[in-house]
Fold this protein.
Amino acid sequence: MAKATRAAFGATLIKLVEEGVDVMAVDADLAGSTTTGKFAEAYPDRMVDVGIAEQNMIGVASGLALAGRTVFTGSFAVFGTGRCWEQIRNTVCDSNLNVKVAPTHSGITVGPDGATHQMLEDIALMRVLPNMRVLVPADYAAACAAIRLAATTPGPFYIRLGRAVVPEVYGDDFACDLAFANVVREGADVSLMACGVEVAEALKAADLLAQDGISAEVVDVMSVKPLDEETILASAAKTGRVVTVEEHSVYGGMGSAVAELLGEKHPVPVTRIGMTTFGTSGEPDELLAHFGLDASGIARRVREVLGR
Amino acid sequence: MSNTLGAQPVRTDGEVALVANRMRHDIIRMLAAAGSGHPGGSLSAADIVATLFFGSVLNYNPADAADPARDRFILCKGHAAPALYAALAEVGYVPREELLTLRKLGSRFQGHPDCHCAPGIEVSTGSLGQGLSIAAGLALAFKQDAAREGADAHEKRVYALTGDGELQEGQNWEALMFAAHRGLDNLTAVVDLNNLQIDGHVTDVCSLGDVCAKFRAFGWNTLEVDGHSVSELRAAFADAQGHKGAPTAIVAHTVKGKGVSFMEDACNWHGNAPSEEQAAQALAELDEAAAALAAACKEA
């Protein structure tokens, strides 16, 4: 069943505790929205709500981690990475703590809340930090796997979760390891490298392109840092043309990470599809279409760059 | 107050003051060798740090810096790293002569504390305003640990040392609210109130107003002491350890650059290292003070 990736947050933490993994969560007055509230209902002592104070959220999480806990932090992506970026840098990452930054409501699919609440720079902010790993799950099952991977791997993680319901890409038994990218559809003419909600859109775009005789390969770049270099390079070598797609700024995001890798190891033409402006209010589907980030927008762009 | 981890001497107030003097000596030596760094705030904090480590306040194991049963000390004002490093040398975690590598490439003693480098540094600090939140998270975890272990469990304590200029950072007030709300009575914050920051006197740059009233308004048990009086500091720490239901703030009135006449209450000594000549004069003054302290100890 299609669900939002944020729904995986509280649910997976509950499962992890049931399995004996000693996880805690710290949130900043958004427990209902991030779903850490569900975790709090099940395990009240394992969830700490600090109120509307994201910098303190990261500090308290760091203290709990120093005392041996594995701690997930919540809030919305814009506040949970932006307001407290320097705390994440200087406390979590410099001290290499077991803090997993997992805010929800990333990207334009936040919807009606509008530009101030649609975080478009979080991948960029997180991936530049030493010790930080960055995961952008494509669907509910991938989000569960990402949270599980972060909980059982020492050190800082960023997990990008979203508000909107996203179609299923994977089955419930999906599992991943670090540096994970996955060819979700094979193709020959162009590689669509997507992350998060854009994986489902890229798959639909590949269907549209097939109608025009364009064979698009779709690669889920779930781990933006570290990158699965082998999978990405193999796909680029196979098709010779890469288009990246993300509901994030084209500056510094997944597309930039892929372009950096290809530029150094296997230069091919790269087109980055993403955001270059702030978002605006609207329903998630409307916004994806408005900003050319839905299947037809992606297909249109691919036809342009291929000259077809 | 007692140290339950490892054998440590019980020192008189005068003996603790002598240790603080020795730490000041080390602070001057290492800063002169480094050629850069922060003497003012290190010297103002020396008696506070000495009382914590050598006045039987902080519970730690001299044979094992990572002993899980230890209390935690968080140096929020990380630029006073030389004071912490001097204490670590005094404990014996690091060789005293290694302090002279301060701020040099390859040294275990960075300009601000880095927890991967030397034993006894709990977390990397130096970016102001973050330490109290970390301390609060630790204190909460220790409360939960003790609750899980049962009624007789030993509850570990957390001590955080902030500057006064540092309190201009808003995150501190988030942490103060949180710690009081959670009743973290195993947390003690000491404010090294030396009234100087880089740009001038705190009261001129952006006054904190009545700091004690602010801490009280945030629900903290608040004490005011002379931050260079070991006996007053000890009494305050004892009060903090006995106080239930709320965290304790010890507002310690200090003099920036304390112990070196030309550095005292002088803004330019926040972030400048002494020259060789200046260091020699400073060390001579400290030696003189040490002789007086030692004589007083003998009389007592």
Q: What stands out?
A: The two ends of chain A are 36 Å apart (CA to CA). Chain A has a mean pLDDT of 97.
